[in-house]
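lol so apparently i was supposed to do this last week
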Amino acid sequence: MHDSDSIVIIPTYNEKENIEKIIRAVFSLDKCFHILVIDDGSPDGTADIVKRLMSEEFSGRLFILERKGKLGLGTAYITGFRWALEHEYEYIFEMDADFSHDPNDLPRLYSACHDEGYDVAIGSRYVSGVNVVNWPIGRVLMSYFASKYVRMVTGFKVNDTTAGFKCYRRRVLETIELDKIRFKGYAFQIEMKFTAYKIGFKIKEVPVIFVNRREGVSKMSGGIFSEAFFGVMRLRWDGWTRKYPCPA
Ligand SMILES: Nc1nc2c(ncn2[C@@H]2O[C@H](COP(=O)(O)OP(=O)(O)O[C@H]3O[C@H](CO)[C@@H](O)[C@H](O)[C@@H]3O)[C@@H](O)[C@H]2O)c(=O)[nH]1
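anyway here it is w/ guanosine-5'-diphosphate-alpha-D-mannose bound
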Protein backbone atom coordinates (compact mmCIF):
# COMPACT_ATOMS: atom_id res chain seq x y z
CA MET A 1 0.00 0.00 0.00
CA HIS A 2 1.05 3.61 -0.60
CA ASP A 3 1.30 6.39 1.96
CA SER A 4 -1.09 8.38 -0.25
CA ASP A 5 -4.53 7.79 -1.77
CA SER A 6 -3.92 10.55 -4.35
CA ILE A 7 -1.82 10.96 -7.47
CA VAL A 8 -1.32 14.16 -9.46
CA ILE A 9 -0.68 13.49 -13.15
CA ILE A 10 1.42 16.21 -14.81
CA PRO A 11 1.94 15.94 -18.59
CA THR A 12 5.08 17.68 -19.81
CA TYR A 13 6.61 18.84 -23.03
CA ASN A 14 9.59 21.20 -22.64
CA GLU A 15 8.91 22.33 -19.08
CA LYS A 16 12.46 22.53 -17.72
CA GLU A 17 11.80 25.99 -16.20
CA ASN A 18 8.75 24.78 -14.27
CA ILE A 19 8.97 21.10 -13.47
CA GLU A 20 11.20 21.13 -10.39
CA LYS A 21 9.34 24.08 -8.88
CA ILE A 22 5.93 22.50 -9.38
CA ILE A 23 7.05 19.17 -7.95
CA ARG A 24 8.44 20.90 -4.84
CA ALA A 25 5.25 22.96 -4.49
CA VAL A 26 3.08 19.81 -4.49
CA PHE A 27 5.34 18.01 -2.03
CA SER A 28 5.31 20.98 0.35
CA LEU A 29 1.53 20.71 0.89
CA ASP A 30 0.26 19.35 4.21
CA LYS A 31 -1.61 16.54 2.50
CA CYS A 32 0.60 13.87 0.98
CA PHE A 33 0.15 13.62 -2.79
CA HIS A 34 2.13 11.46 -5.18
CA ILE A 35 3.09 12.74 -8.65
CA LEU A 36 3.25 10.99 -12.02
CA VAL A 37 4.93 12.94 -14.83
CA ILE A 38 4.15 11.89 -18.41
CA ASP A 39 6.94 13.31 -20.53
CA ASP A 40 6.85 13.12 -24.32
CA GLY A 41 10.60 13.03 -24.99
CA SER A 42 11.04 16.76 -24.23
CA PRO A 43 14.18 17.90 -26.08
CA ASP A 44 14.95 20.36 -23.24
CA GLY A 45 15.68 17.53 -20.77
CA THR A 46 12.57 17.85 -18.56
CA ALA A 47 12.64 14.09 -17.91
CA ASP A 48 16.24 14.21 -16.65
CA ILE A 49 15.26 16.75 -14.00
CA VAL A 50 12.42 14.50 -12.83
CA LYS A 51 14.66 11.43 -12.73
CA ARG A 52 17.26 13.30 -10.67
CA LEU A 53 14.60 14.32 -8.13
CA MET A 54 13.29 10.74 -8.04
CA SER A 55 16.68 9.34 -7.21
CA GLU A 56 17.90 12.08 -4.89
CA GLU A 57 14.88 13.05 -2.81
CA PHE A 58 11.47 11.78 -3.77
CA SER A 59 11.78 8.06 -4.27
CA GLY A 60 8.42 6.31 -3.82
CA ARG A 61 6.42 9.55 -4.24
CA LEU A 62 7.48 10.75 -7.68
CA PHE A 63 7.12 8.66 -10.84
CA ILE A 64 7.68 9.19 -14.56
CA LEU A 65 6.51 7.58 -17.77
CA GLU A 66 8.47 8.59 -20.86
CA ARG A 67 6.99 8.45 -24.32
CA LYS A 68 9.04 8.76 -27.47
CA GLY A 69 7.55 11.87 -29.06
CA LYS A 70 4.93 14.56 -28.65
CA LEU A 71 1.74 12.51 -28.79
CA GLY A 72 -0.69 15.04 -27.31
CA LEU A 73 -2.13 15.98 -23.95
CA GLY A 74 -5.15 13.67 -24.18
CA THR A 75 -3.22 10.47 -24.80
CA ALA A 76 -0.70 11.50 -22.11
CA TYR A 77 -3.52 11.64 -19.58
CA ILE A 78 -5.04 8.36 -20.76
CA THR A 79 -1.64 6.70 -20.26
CA GLY A 80 -1.45 8.26 -16.80
CA PHE A 81 -5.00 7.23 -15.85
CA ARG A 82 -4.30 3.60 -16.71
CA TRP A 83 -1.11 3.66 -14.64
CA ALA A 84 -2.91 5.29 -11.68
CA LEU A 85 -5.72 2.70 -11.77
CA GLU A 86 -3.21 -0.12 -11.94
CA HIS A 87 -1.39 1.34 -8.93
CA GLU A 88 -4.62 1.61 -6.95
CA TYR A 89 -4.92 5.32 -6.32
CA GLU A 90 -8.39 6.49 -5.29
CA TYR A 91 -8.14 10.20 -6.22
CA ILE A 92 -6.54 10.96 -9.57
CA PHE A 93 -5.72 14.56 -10.51
CA GLU A 94 -4.90 16.40 -13.74
CA MET A 95 -2.65 19.44 -13.47
CA ASP A 96 -0.48 21.51 -15.85
CA ALA A 97 3.24 21.88 -15.12
CA ASP A 98 3.38 25.64 -15.64
CA PHE A 99 1.65 27.02 -12.48
CA SER A 100 -1.42 28.13 -14.40
CA HIS A 101 -3.03 25.70 -11.97
CA ASP A 102 -2.09 26.58 -8.39
CA PRO A 103 -0.96 23.46 -6.47
CA ASN A 104 -2.41 25.08 -3.31
CA ASP A 105 -5.86 24.37 -4.78
CA LEU A 106 -5.27 20.60 -4.86
CA PRO A 107 -6.60 20.07 -1.29
CA ARG A 108 -9.86 21.87 -2.19
CA LEU A 109 -10.39 19.60 -5.20
CA TYR A 110 -9.58 16.61 -2.99
CA SER A 111 -12.03 17.75 -0.34
CA ALA A 112 -14.87 18.11 -2.88
CA CYS A 113 -14.47 14.41 -3.74
CA HIS A 114 -13.30 12.97 -0.42
CA ASP A 115 -15.44 14.99 2.04
CA GLU A 116 -18.41 16.10 -0.06
CA GLY A 117 -18.77 12.90 -2.07
CA TYR A 118 -18.48 14.27 -5.59
CA ASP A 119 -17.10 11.98 -8.31
CA VAL A 120 -15.37 14.72 -10.30
CA ALA A 121 -14.11 18.10 -9.02
CA ILE A 122 -13.27 20.71 -11.64
CA GLY A 123 -11.01 23.66 -10.88
CA SER A 124 -13.27 26.17 -12.59
CA ARG A 125 -12.47 29.66 -13.87
CA TYR A 126 -16.04 30.58 -14.68
CA VAL A 127 -18.16 29.75 -11.63
CA SER A 128 -18.71 33.43 -10.98
CA GLY A 129 -17.37 35.82 -13.60
CA VAL A 130 -14.02 35.17 -15.27
CA ASN A 131 -11.10 34.28 -12.99
CA VAL A 132 -8.16 34.37 -15.34
CA VAL A 133 -4.98 36.39 -14.77
CA ASN A 134 -2.51 37.58 -17.42
CA TRP A 135 -4.10 35.85 -20.38
CA PRO A 136 -4.24 37.81 -23.64
CA ILE A 137 -7.79 39.11 -24.05
CA GLY A 138 -8.23 37.03 -27.22
CA ARG A 139 -7.58 33.84 -25.30
CA VAL A 140 -9.88 34.80 -22.44
CA LEU A 141 -12.74 35.49 -24.85
CA MET A 142 -12.09 32.32 -26.83
CA SER A 143 -11.99 30.13 -23.72
CA TYR A 144 -15.08 31.76 -22.16
CA PHE A 145 -17.16 31.54 -25.31
CA ALA A 146 -15.91 28.01 -26.00
CA SER A 147 -17.54 26.94 -22.74
CA LYS A 148 -20.75 28.77 -23.72
CA TYR A 149 -20.61 27.06 -27.14
CA VAL A 150 -20.30 23.62 -25.53
CA ARG A 151 -23.29 24.38 -23.28
CA MET A 152 -25.34 25.56 -26.20
CA VAL A 153 -24.56 22.60 -28.47
CA THR A 154 -24.61 19.80 -25.89
CA GLY A 155 -26.85 21.14 -23.09
CA PHE A 156 -24.08 20.19 -20.65
CA LYS A 157 -24.42 22.56 -17.69
CA VAL A 158 -20.82 23.05 -16.62
CA ASN A 159 -19.36 26.57 -16.72
CA ASP A 160 -15.74 25.64 -17.48
CA THR A 161 -15.92 22.76 -19.93
CA THR A 162 -12.33 22.99 -21.18
CA ALA A 163 -10.74 23.17 -17.70
CA GLY A 164 -7.68 20.96 -17.29
CA PHE A 165 -7.39 21.05 -13.47
CA LYS A 166 -9.43 18.21 -12.02
CA CYS A 167 -9.83 15.41 -9.50
CA TYR A 168 -11.51 12.14 -10.46
CA ARG A 169 -12.61 9.34 -8.14
CA ARG A 170 -11.14 6.13 -9.49
CA ARG A 171 -14.62 4.71 -10.22
CA VAL A 172 -15.11 7.43 -12.85
CA LEU A 173 -11.99 6.40 -14.75
CA GLU A 174 -12.86 2.73 -14.31
CA THR A 175 -16.29 3.29 -15.85
CA ILE A 176 -15.45 5.69 -18.69
CA GLU A 177 -14.29 3.49 -21.54
CA LEU A 178 -10.88 5.13 -21.91
CA ASP A 179 -10.18 3.43 -25.23
CA LYS A 180 -13.23 5.28 -26.67
CA ILE A 181 -11.88 8.73 -25.74
CA ARG A 182 -10.68 10.06 -29.07
CA PHE A 183 -9.70 13.73 -28.68
CA LYS A 184 -6.30 15.15 -27.76
CA GLY A 185 -6.48 18.84 -26.83
CA TYR A 186 -9.24 21.05 -25.42
CA ALA A 187 -11.79 18.62 -26.85
CA PHE A 188 -10.25 15.88 -24.69
CA GLN A 189 -11.11 17.91 -21.60
CA ILE A 190 -14.66 18.47 -22.83
CA GLU A 191 -15.08 14.81 -23.80
CA MET A 192 -13.98 13.49 -20.40
CA LYS A 193 -16.39 15.76 -18.50
CA PHE A 194 -19.27 15.21 -20.90
CA THR A 195 -18.86 11.42 -20.74
CA ALA A 196 -18.76 11.47 -16.90
CA TYR A 197 -21.90 13.61 -16.90
CA LYS A 198 -23.76 11.34 -19.36
CA ILE A 199 -22.91 8.31 -17.24
CA GLY A 200 -24.45 10.10 -14.25
CA PHE A 201 -21.45 10.95 -12.08
CA LYS A 202 -21.72 13.88 -9.67
CA ILE A 203 -19.61 16.85 -10.77
CA LYS A 204 -18.65 19.89 -8.72
CA GLU A 205 -17.04 23.09 -9.99
CA VAL A 206 -14.59 24.45 -7.42
CA PRO A 207 -13.70 28.11 -8.12
CA VAL A 208 -10.02 28.68 -8.91
CA ILE A 209 -7.96 31.47 -10.40
CA PHE A 210 -6.08 30.47 -13.57
CA VAL A 211 -2.82 32.38 -13.97
CA ASN A 212 -1.14 32.39 -17.37
CA ARG A 213 2.27 30.68 -17.41
CA ARG A 214 5.27 32.90 -16.61
CA GLU A 215 7.88 30.46 -17.98
CA GLY A 216 7.92 28.47 -21.21
CA VAL A 217 5.30 28.61 -23.96
CA SER A 218 1.91 27.00 -24.62
CA LYS A 219 2.15 23.71 -26.54
CA MET A 220 -1.33 23.73 -28.04
CA SER A 221 -1.46 24.05 -31.83
CA GLY A 222 -4.01 25.41 -34.31
CA GLY A 223 -5.38 21.94 -35.12
CA ILE A 224 -6.49 21.60 -31.52
CA PHE A 225 -9.02 24.43 -32.04
CA SER A 226 -10.73 22.84 -35.00
CA GLU A 227 -10.69 19.50 -33.17
CA ALA A 228 -12.61 21.21 -30.35
CA PHE A 229 -15.04 23.04 -32.65
CA PHE A 230 -16.12 19.97 -34.62
CA GLY A 231 -15.53 17.59 -31.70
CA VAL A 232 -18.31 19.22 -29.71
CA MET A 233 -20.77 18.39 -32.48
CA ARG A 234 -19.54 14.80 -32.46
CA LEU A 235 -20.13 14.69 -28.70
CA ARG A 236 -23.68 15.99 -29.17
CA TRP A 237 -24.27 13.20 -31.68
CA ASP A 238 -22.79 10.65 -29.26
CA GLY A 239 -25.09 11.99 -26.56
CA TRP A 240 -28.08 11.06 -28.73
CA THR A 241 -26.86 7.75 -30.11
CA ARG A 242 -24.29 6.15 -27.80
CA LYS A 243 -25.12 3.70 -25.03
CA TYR A 244 -23.06 4.86 -22.06
CA PRO A 245 -21.88 2.35 -19.43
CA CYS A 246 -23.48 2.25 -15.96
CA PRO A 247 -21.55 3.83 -13.05
CA ALA A 248 -19.13 1.41 -11.31
N1 LIG B 1 3.18 14.80 -22.41
C1 LIG B 1 2.68 15.86 -23.08
N2 LIG B 1 2.43 17.00 -22.41
C2 LIG B 1 1.92 18.04 -23.10
C3 LIG B 1 1.65 17.99 -24.49
N3 LIG B 1 1.14 19.20 -24.86
C4 LIG B 1 1.10 19.96 -23.75
N4 LIG B 1 1.59 19.27 -22.69
C5 LIG B 1 1.68 19.70 -21.29
O1 LIG B 1 0.35 19.95 -20.86
C6 LIG B 1 0.30 21.07 -19.98
C7 LIG B 1 -0.61 22.17 -20.59
O2 LIG B 1 -0.04 22.60 -21.82
P1 LIG B 1 -0.13 24.10 -22.34
O3 LIG B 1 0.47 24.13 -23.68
O4 LIG B 1 0.34 25.03 -21.28
O5 LIG B 1 -1.71 24.19 -22.47
P2 LIG B 1 -2.70 25.41 -22.54
O6 LIG B 1 -2.89 25.78 -23.96
O7 LIG B 1 -2.38 26.48 -21.55
O8 LIG B 1 -4.03 24.64 -22.06
C8 LIG B 1 -4.39 24.49 -20.70
O9 LIG B 1 -5.62 25.17 -20.49
C9 LIG B 1 -6.70 24.65 -21.29
C10 LIG B 1 -7.96 25.41 -20.97
O10 LIG B 1 -7.81 26.75 -21.16
C11 LIG B 1 -6.97 23.18 -21.00
O11 LIG B 1 -7.98 22.67 -21.85
C12 LIG B 1 -5.69 22.38 -21.22
O12 LIG B 1 -5.91 21.03 -20.81
C13 LIG B 1 -4.55 23.00 -20.39
O13 LIG B 1 -4.87 22.85 -19.00
C14 LIG B 1 1.75 21.53 -19.79
O14 LIG B 1 2.24 20.92 -18.62
C15 LIG B 1 2.44 20.99 -21.06
O15 LIG B 1 3.83 20.79 -20.90
C16 LIG B 1 1.96 16.77 -25.19
O16 LIG B 1 1.77 16.62 -26.39
N5 LIG B 1 2.46 15.75 -24.42
